[in-house]
Specification:
Number of domains: 3
Number of strands: 9
Order of helices and strands: EEEHEHEHHHHHHHEEEEHHHH
Shape: globular
Largest sheet: 5 strands, mixed
Structural class: alpha/beta
Radius of gyration: 26 Å
Distance between the termini: 55 Å
Amino acid sequence: MSIKYVALDVHQASTAASVRDQSGRVVRRGILETTPADLIGFVSSIRRPVHLAFEEGTLAQWLHDLLREHVDDLIVCDPRQNALLLSGSKTDQIDADKLSELLRLGALRPIYHATDHLTTLRESVRAYDMLVDDSVRVMLRIKAVFRSRAIRAAGERLYGKADRAEWLQRLDQQPALRQRIESLFTQLDQLMELRERARRSMIDAAKATDGYPHIRSVPFIGPVRAAEIIAYMMTPHRFRTRRQLWAYSGLAVVTHSSADHRFESGLLVRRRVTATRGLNHNFHRVLKKVFKQAAFDASLHRGPLRTCYERMLQSGIRPDMARLTLARKIAAIVLAVWKRGVDFDQQRLMLTT
């Protein structure tokens, strides 16, 4: 039977749809209200088999869970890879038409989406990360006020309740400013209480997963980092090799070069050219933060990973590159112990380094 290729350009209020047949001809278009009834009704009205695609965005997980039972194949694609959508005129319907053509040609790069069995953990992690960002923002505002009055406020002692009266006393001559700081301190206290509550909830949800004890056995992967790894990696089996995890976490080295070959006396010779190297730009920011912070901590404290770090320094590797290599090693260890369902083995690490 003829496959129908359906693409949706999804927005908060409306969705543009485009349907192509196997020959590439657009056989149907439509503008739908972004509601479950309209979306399911449109997709279900198309004779199967149906292949469906839409771009990653705010509504992607909801749309994936809503429509995956009503199609034969579903792709949530990476919008940063769809260069065709950036050329020429741009409307919702044009974008949907271009997306359906890319789907038919097999030119879309899928983004991993699965049945969301980690909903509780992921929402807890997001709540905790949000509260961390908010509390840090309030801390910076408090410190900025004191610094603007030439009052030294280094370190974290400023934020504790024990010495708060002493800090406020320094602003007695400026009642309006003191009132402002008191409101910021109240806000910080409330955020820290919510932050600790979210932290406990996040860790409890992480402990209920199978991989948590194995990931926690990796040096410098504490309960918060373990919860973030599980929430955003979801499963280790989506990464066939450690290199795929490195790329997903922004730890993959990419090389750019040009004019790599030349002909000498009729023979093809590879030129020795200096290639531009760097890390990949398309990555998951939370996972990169987790692995790089774990590597930084490992480089400062005694342990098997510190030994690896020191060996790299002795061989002439720059400290920043050594920490990057350490972050890649930690990511590879996490992937291995999670996949195999075993704890971290220090003796095995020393034999391989």
